[in-house]
Amino acid sequence: MEASSQPHVVVVGAGPAGLMAAEAAAAAGARVTVRDQRRSFGRTLLLAGRSGLNLTHDEPLETFLGRYSTGRELVEPAIRAFPPSAVRAWADELGADTFVGSSGRVFPAAMRATALVRAWLVRLADLGVAFEPATPWSGFDDTSEHTVLALGGASWPQVGGDGSWVAVFRAAGFAVDPLVASNAGVEVEWSAPLLDRFEGTPLKNVAVSIDGETVRGEPTITAAGLEGGPIYALGPRIRAALARARPSLEIDLQPDLPEADLAHRLAGRRRSKDSLSTWLRRAGLQPVAVAIMREATDNRLPTSVDTLAALAKAVPLPVRGIASIDRAISSAGGVAAAEIDETGMLRRRPGTWVVGEMSAWDAPTGGYLIQACLSTGRRAGTAAAALRAD
């Protein structure tokens, strides 16, 4: 293709969605420029991969798509076109040698993102992609032929994802749902003695519930409250409950044991000389579990077997709030579904696409976040390269 006939695609933002949009557009024959306000590219992936780069998740596609809840319509076509199996093949081509962990999460063999990002940037350079660092987005630009905006949500301010674009979009008349913390810890008011002993301790094999939804896992006690997989997964329910009142989480400390069986165990493990804590530990409740039971009862644990069993199956923990958005793994909210078409292009601004966390979908941790960013980026990049200017 002649250089003069190539569409010029400007990608703003060098996270996973932006870089994938650049790759897809360049591979389709477009001339591509990637701009980022930072001086290096791929920083979001590098930060996300510090404790293991979870690229996607290995499970049936229908189950996978269900993880996006009410935002499914925004990401489903893109993920079907570039599903988890395709992400693994793409990463393996870059030398990642992905593997599936015991929980179904997919990681590169090296775990961290450094090698993958380095290989990816080399591929983009080989495709002719130009890079313009230290170039922040200053608003809608009518001089660019096609623009893919990959500005992120508001949970990564250290790499530029501060949500400052929202005001610009709203001023231009676009509907944008408020950006809120997602995959974030909840605030619980712990006593000093509990924190002195158990801060950083996980609650092993428990079930956490709120408003009729239950998630199994191992939440961790923090100075501010609770964090971890089951808390993150319940985020939408917790946000909705907080909008109405001050809700409580319920912690089932023995989810594999019916309440009657737990009462029977408690009755059979009691010794006349045991303290209350020793008795409960003898019945299979770990010290940290006993501690939160004490916390929930203001250190006045019941002595009745049936009442103790009922408490252990549903320990109430009042929630004061959710951690601030700058401490969250991701953010929910963004450009409303009605504003974008099936390729992610703004309906009222043809030639401009939004990708990744800029649109109003939400997802738990486990590979779903990066997968949706890669898939929506690929969809937009392909569409931008195919659209000819009038």
What does this structure look like?
With 390 residues, the chain is an alpha+beta fold. It has 2 domains: 3-182 and 328-386, FAD/NAD(P)-binding domain, CATH 3.50.50.60; 186-322, no CATH class. 36% of the residues lie in helices and 17% in strands. It has 15 helices and 18 strands. The strands form 5 sheets. Strands 6-2-1-7-18 form a 5-stranded parallel sheet, with helices on one face. Strand 10 and strand 11 form a beta hairpin. Helix 1 runs parallel beside helix 6, helix 1 (16-27) packs parallel to helix 15 and helix 11 packs across helix 14 (305-313). The longest helix has 19 residues, at 368-386. The radius of gyration is 24 Å and the shape is elongated. The two termini are 18 Å apart.
